[in-house]
């Protein structure tokens, strides 16, 4: 397995940490603006009827699951979330939460898309798709409560491997408990506090997506600027750099 161990956040450059903190504070402050200009619900859970691509994605889930199953034959080749995105170290520990990125804020990860071409094609057809990855959670792991930095996107999960014991497997978004089903999409606003528990003895895996929130003209213009700033920030550049390093080290192994 490639050694992509990253320094803890306390060892990262002070200026970078301050910039990230300031950026997240601004994004959350900007949430009220996004609420006013949103064309869809701003509730914790968002209805599937608000997006016309949901049914088409669900219809393709068997092919997506097949590509995931092939990946899982070699789990050592799939990095933990914090190995790619060091800012996730508070919620991603050990190798309990693995991710396999296909798109990162609109940037295509060519090596991974080549491994999962049908999944890459399916997500690339979703209007406003920003981020797409497989999210793989080991048994008996708890993703602690946290909030996403911006209401500019909507989070989608397509259930792929879902243990049957619902009492022991769930995601809480604000005050709502949601459950996954294989082949079905759930949509939510991750700027609300949320957490995940997998207290089963089985793996849980979903296709994880961030989609542009539909906005009015003013909101769309502001979010376009916002996305360009995010893409130019360490929040996106560092994960892309780490993905490239992961692939280079994997080839040398």
CA(first)-CA(last) distance:
7 Å
CATH class annotation: Mainly Beta
| Unreliable sequence segments | 1-11
Give me the CATH fold name. Jelly Rolls
Strand content: 15-25%
Approximate helicity band: 25-40%
Question: What's the number of helices?
Answer: 9
Number of domains: 1
Order of helices and strands: HHEHHHEEHHEEEEEEEEHH
CATH H-level homologous superfamily name: B-lactam Antibiotic, Isopenicillin N Synthase, Chain
Radius of gyration: 17 Å
Largest sheet: 7 strands, antiparallel
Number of strands: 11
Shape: globular
Family: Belongs to the aspartyl/asparaginyl beta-hydroxylase family.
Organism: Serratia marcescens subsp. marcescens Db11
Domain Aspartyl/asparaginy/proline hydroxylase: 58-214
Protein name: Aspartyl/asparaginyl beta-hydroxylase
Describe the 3D structure.
This protein is 36% helix and 25% strand. By secondary structure, it is an alpha+beta fold. The protein has a single domain, classed as Sandwich (Jelly Rolls). The strands form two sheets. A seven-stranded antiparallel sheet has the order 1-9-6-11-4-2-3. It has a four-stranded antiparallel sheet with strand order 5-10-7-8, with no helix packed on it. Strand 7 and strand 8 (176-178) form a beta hairpin.
């Amino acid at each position: 397995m490639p050694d992509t161990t990253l320094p803890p956040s306390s060892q990262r450059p002070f200026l970078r940490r301050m910039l990230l903190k300031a950026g997240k504070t601004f994004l959350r402050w900007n949430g009220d603006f996004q609420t006013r200009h949103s064309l869809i619900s701003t509730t914790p859970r968002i209805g599937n009827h608000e997006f016309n691509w949901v049914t088409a994605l669900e219809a393709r889930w068997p092919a997506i699951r097949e590509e995931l199953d092939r990946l899982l034959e070699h789990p050592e080749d799939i990095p933990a979330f914090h190995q790619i995105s060091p800012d996730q170290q508070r919620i991603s520990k050990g190798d309990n939460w693995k991710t396999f990125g296909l798109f990162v804020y609109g940037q295509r990860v060519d090596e991974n898309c080549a491994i999962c071409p049908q999944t890459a094609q399916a997500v690339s057809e979703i209007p406003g798709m920003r981020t797409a990855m497989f999210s793989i959670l080991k048994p008996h792991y708890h993703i602690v409560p946290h909030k996403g930095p911006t209401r500019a996107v909507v989070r989608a999960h397509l259930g792929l491997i879902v243990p049957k014991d619902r009492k022991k497997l769930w995601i809480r978004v604000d005050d709502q408990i949601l459950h996954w089903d294989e082949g079905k999409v759930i949509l939510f606003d991750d700027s609300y506090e949320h957490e995940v528990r997998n207290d089963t003895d089985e793996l849980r895996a979903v296709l994880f997506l961030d989609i542009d929130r539909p906005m009015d003209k003013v909101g769309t213009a502001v979010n376009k600027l916002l996305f360009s700033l995010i893409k130019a920030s360490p929040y996106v550049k560092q994960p892309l750099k780490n993905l490239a390093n992961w692939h280079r080290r994997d080839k040398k192994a």
